[in-house]
Structures are given as structure tokens and as C-alpha cells.
DNA sequence: CCTTGCTTTAGATCCTGTCCAAGGTAGGGT
DNA sequence: ACCCTACCTTGGACAGGATCTAAAGCAAGG
């Protein structure tokens, strides 16, 4: 994720300890943390970091397309660093764990013009729900 | 919707004026009201009805599978009486208006076994986002 | 009718997320 | 190396959505 920070710095983003730590926390595959989880992990490395800064940083990363914001029902949104290859989500109805998935079909094409009601459709979001192997017992 | 109320009464649901009014408000096609919108409309007919009762009634209707709960990003959930024929949603990014849609493909089948990560997938929810004709100007 | 257990109600409370004013600091300019 | 200043961070207030509570109300079976 250090190339991410470098990229953003070149675009005029000030490189602060807080932003560095948030970026570190968000590194990895199948990472889908809530803002408060990001805050808790960031605070291990930088105890004074505030919730407001975590929210600010996440909002900017989302706005710049570096992080994906995934809204899950009524609960807290989750933040996903895997923003460069589009994908969808598989969500466990019991424990809430989340995996990235890549369906085969062209889901946008699955919506025929007769079903578009004059909308200019630009994006499709898919959530598959089920029970994960750990919860299956 | 009166058969709905009858059905529920037979299952031990007490028939109150409040529940009757909420059911009436939720009648129709392409109805996707927020809880507060339901409350506002219900209050026209029954001024003393409380927000808590609207929330309680909606929760129960959802729990009994008579109404669908649709969560839209950070905003208030919407309640959809069209629960008996499964469908997906087309959502305007600007004004938030919502339409029911029925994609052609088998979206569950679009998730190949190699992408299931051992989950027992039971449900798929799709949200198409775009700009509605009214907002297109 | 009565009774009883389910319902309703207002208001408190919780959770997520945003806003604010005050103080701090990255990093370009010198 | 040191300033400056525009940008950043902070804690706490705030807001909207939704749930919870305890007291009062009422549907409906007996
Ligand atoms: Mn993801
Ligand atoms: Mn619908
Ligand atoms: Zn699970
Ligand atoms: Zn619109």
C-alpha cells in the first residue's frame, strides 16, 4: 500500500502518520472492516488517532476510488481496499463474514432494456447471502 | 391487502387500527417507503399513531415475509409490499427513487462453485444504480 | 362483560456518521 | 535549517435512523 500513499502524495495529499496507519490497516485480501474496526486497529499503532480522522481518511480514500465502501443492511459500512478489480460479495447470514466473489455472467447485461424504465444504469452491486463453512456445523 | 390482515389474524395477530392503517399505506406497486414516510401517511388517517408502532409493525411484517426490507446505502431503509414475487431494484443515485426490476439471467447460477468458498448460498440481492429519467435533464 | 396478555405510546437511549472550532504540523519557500 | 500557512487532526457536540422501556390501553376468548 506504500505505492498508494506515494500516488496520493503526488496528487497533493499530505502524508501524515494517521493516514499512513489507516492505509496499513487496510492492507490485505478479503479485508472488509468497519470504520470503528479500522479505528481500533489503527489505535494500536497510534493511540491518539481520533475516530473523526479515520472517518475523514476513509471518506477520501473512497472518493479517490482507492477503497470501496460496502453497505451491509442496517449495520456499519465496511471498507474494502480491493477497489481496482471490480467484484461482488458473499456474506454469511450468521457471523457476518465476507468474501470477495466474481460472478461469471455480465450482470449489467442481465437487465434488459425493457426493465430499465428509462434509467441510465451505470453500476450493479450484488450480494450473495448464505452460511459460511465455519458456521455450517 | 385485507386478505393479508385476515391471514395474519388467523395466525394469532391481533387486529388493531394501527396495524390496519400501516397495511393500507403499504398497498400498491413500486411502493418503497421509509419508516418515517409510512408513519407520516398513516398519521393522516390515524393521527395518534406512534413511530414506535410503525417500526414494530414493519419489523413484524418483514419477519413474517409479507414485506421486504430494502437497505439503501447510508439512508433510511425502505419497505416494499411486493414480497411474494422475488425481484431486484433499480435505484436513482440522485433522487433515491426506486423501481422493481426482474433481470433475465439466473443470478444465483452466475456464481460458479469455485467462487462459493464453501458457503451454502441461498439468496442473491442485486441493486442497479443509475440516473432516473426525471433526474436525467 | 371481564380478564389477561398482547399492543401502543412517549421518551430515553443507542449506533453510525458528520460537523465544528481550536490547536497542530507537513512540506514548499527562503 | 527555519518559517509560514494552508491543510490536517482532535474531542466533543450534533443529527438521523432505529430500538428499548415501563406504563397505560385494548382485542378478543371465555
Ligand atoms: Mn470486497
Ligand atoms: Mn421492490
Ligand atoms: Zn459464518
Ligand atoms: Zn432520480
UniProtKB/TrEMBL annotation, chains A, B:
Binding site residues for Zn(2+): 92, 95, 132, 135
The cofactor note from the UniProt entry for this protein is: Binds 1 zinc ion per subunit.
Q: Which CDD domains match?
A: Fur_like
What is one Pfam family matched by this protein?
A: FUR
The organism encoding this protein is: Streptomyces coelicoflavus
| Name of the protein described by the UniProt record | Transcriptional repressor
Q: Name one GO molecular function term.
A: transcription cis-regulatory region binding
The GO annotation for biological process reads: negative regulation of DNA-templated transcription; regulation of secondary metabolite biosynthetic process
- Record-linked InterPro entries: FUR, Fur_C, WH-like_DNA-bd_sf, WH_DNA-bd_sf
Q: Which UniProt keywords apply?
A: DNA-binding, Metal-binding, Repressor, Transcription, Transcription regulation, Zinc
The family note in this entry says: Belongs to the Fur family.
Q: Which stretches are annotated as coiled coil?
A: none
| Cofactor field | Zn(2+)
